[in-house]
Amino acid sequence: MKNKIDIFFCTSKLALTAVSIAMLTMSGCRINKGMGNNKQQLNVLFIAVDDLRPQLGCYGDTIVQSPNIDKLAGSGVLFNRAYCQQAVCSPSRTSLMTGRRPNTTKVWDLKTHFRSTIPDVVTLPQYFRSNGYHTQSIGKIYHDPASAQDAPSWSVPEIAAVTKKEGKYVLPANRQTKSSKAVATEQADVPDNAYIDGQVADQALEVLRKIRDKPFFLAVGFRRPHLPFSAPKKYWDMYDRENIPLPLHRTPPGNIPAYAVHNNQELSGYSDIGSNDSITDQKKRELLHGYYAAISYTDAQIGKVLAELDRLNLTKNTIIVLWSDHGFHLGEKGLWAKSTNYELDTRVPLIIAAPGKAQGAKSDQLVELVDLYPTLAELGNLPVPGGLEGTSLAPLLIRPDQPWKSAVFSQFPRPWLYKGEPATMGYTIRTDRYRYVEWRDFKTDTVKATELYDHQADPGEVNNIANISANIALISELQRRLRNGWQMARPPEFNRSSAQ
């Protein structure tokens, strides 16, 4: 493919000066008074949530009840504009765990394992393991199947990395269907650990007690609110379905290529949905209700893990990261689930709480999941490896409002659900104001279609304004920036440092 970018990585460190402290104080941020930088190895609690969009109390949502995640946000920095590199499970998680973007990992699908394309790569937990950490995985960190796991990443075998139908459903009628997908929602009056995420939380508590006396990198991955939206009844009871609003814009823009969207294949596979797009408003409310209940269920499991970390007196010496692999559509543009280049699919929740860094702070700077590898290396006082394609966010944990990246980048292939190189790749650049999408023939790099959305006037990305003649110069500039890529979009300090 044309226009390949040579991988280059360099990082800069900003000192916590008296000026920085003063600016933090003036902005209302607090400093976490846990262990400082050089006295003891910091642990890492790495919490992944599947299919969670930033619809949480700490992100300003007034419907979803997420008290434990909200509390975590109050102890760290919440990133208001964080983005994944490809909005589907395996490519996104591969990018985050290797610190490389999808065109480098060559993982654009759900079947390719990165060890077959970049066999010698050192993953994020593997790097911590090589530096004396006990690394362990509970739940979904890589993609679900056994074939997607990565033994070199972990000190011991994974726990609950692969789940069967029994983890998703508890009602006999749903467990006994021939298909792996029964109904799209389930509620049952059962304890939390009747479902897989409650079991993951229980295992995490046990593991924390066992590894408390050694430096650890503990990855805990929760599967809900991924479909099916299954959760114990008490979490459904937290919401009044009739008060759940339906999305305002339920049709896609009219002037986009057909491959910019999809046919809701992930949702349509469930027995109560069917293969057509005629989902009634009643069913939509049921799906929304299920998504919110699943969020609250997962939030409760996260709360248990955080409470145990605190009870064991480990919080003060632990970096806590909470992230989702991608966002999710809930009927907006007529779309359900993920796998597009739009804002609702690419934007993710991201919270980092680290000893000695800001507390109760929000950053509106553009950041990416690929940034987590260098960030955690730096926060752990480890040398940042070469070859990474993200930028350490450590400076933003000191001064969250400082100038940062001018753009972030995502992509998605078409057709979807294939293995190997795609026919068409959609590349998107998100700047402070605009989202520009360029659909290219993957072999020739020829532009086939474009999309442009002005988030100042159109935050829902309803109107594609790429075909308006007045925007020709703007599109040319965004195209140039997209082609120049992530290296040219790095923070000013980073670019000055790397140029020296």
Describe the structure.
- The structure is a single chain.
- The protein is of the alpha/beta class and 500 residues long.
- It has one domain: Alkaline Phosphatase, subunit A.
- 28% of the residues lie in helices and 19% in strands.
- The chain has helices spanning 18-27, 67-73, 89-98, 102-105, 114-117, 124-130, 165-168, 172-175, 196-211, 233-236, 265-268, 281-311, 343-346, 372-379, 472-484, 492-499; strands at 30-31, 43-49, 77-83, 134-139, 185-188, 216-222, 229-232, 318-324, 329-330, 336-337, 347-353, 358-359, 361-368, 407-414, 424-431, 434-441, 447-454.
Chart the SSEs and their pairings.
Blueprint lengths: L17 H10 L2 E2 L11 E7 L17 H7 L3 E7 L5 H10 L3 H4 L8 H4 L6 H7 L3 E6 L25 H4 L3 H4 L9 E4 L7 H16 L4 E7 L6 E4 H4 L28 H4 L12 H31 L6 E7 L4 E2 L5 E2 L5 H4 E7 L4 E2 L1 E8 L3 H8 L27 E8 L9 E8 L2 E8 L5 E8 L17 H13 L7 H8 L1
SS content category? alpha/beta
Number of helices: 16
Fourth-level CATH superfamily:
Alkaline Phosphatase, subunit A
| Named CATH architecture | 3-Layer(aba) Sandwich
CATH topological fold name: Alkaline Phosphatase, subunit A
Rg over alpha carbons: 22 Å
Relative strand content: 15-25%
Shape annotation:
globular
The N- to C-terminal Cα distance equals: 30 Å
In short:
With 500 residues, this protein is α/β, with parallel strands linked by helices.
